[in-house]
Amino acid sequence: DMMNYKLAIPYFKKAIELKPTESYWIYEMGLIFYAMHADKEALKYILEAGEKGYKRDNDYLENLGIAYLNVGNLDEGVNILNEILKKRPSDMNILNMVAEAYYYKGKYDLATEYWDKVLQADKSDATALYMIGMCYQKKGGKENMDKGVALCDKAIEMDPTLASYKQKKMMAGL
Fold first, then answer.
1. Domain count, the chain
2. How far apart (Å, rounded) are the C-alpha atoms in residues 139 and 142?
3. Is the dihedral of CA 165, 170, 173, 174 positive or negative?
């Protein structure tokens, strides 16, 4: 059963041992490790597949960028995802991914830049507006806090389901 990832790995390793130039198998094994949240192994095999000739298309680059982010290498991950954005500047998924990566690393101004790009493409994206508000709040200071709360409140008006995030924050004492 190849959907049982742990059981699939020995078969992939044996196949790659028999034909070490098969970059597709190496890449697939990287994706299996990715699905198992074995991030260092995922990155290792995705990189190896690229070195052995696997096509560096947007899907490959996206998975490689995510793999770098997952091991904590923000700069390399963002650089790779930005390669995709050069070709597809309004790819909402990638824009949000980069914004989130910056947000969780505490780089709120950079996160805001990317969520601003999301809003430029879709003015009705309440989640992006909410996250920009969160960035302002995280930066601290009364002016930033006030602006952040106002943006979050506006986002909640646009999409009332976002109120649950505010409720969770209040319960956590933030």
1. 2
2. 10
3. positive
CATH code at position 134: 1.25.40.10
Tell whether the model's pLDDT for residue 24 goes beyond 80. Answer: yes
* Bigger pLDDT: 96 vs 2: 96
pLDDT in tens, 71-96: 999 999 999 999 999 999 999 999 99
Same domain, 70 and 132: no
The DSSP annotation for 98-145 comes to HHHHHHHTT-HHHHHHHHHHHHHH-TT-HHHHHHHHHHHHHH-SHHHH
3-state class (DSSP) for residue 90: coil
pTM of the model: 0.83
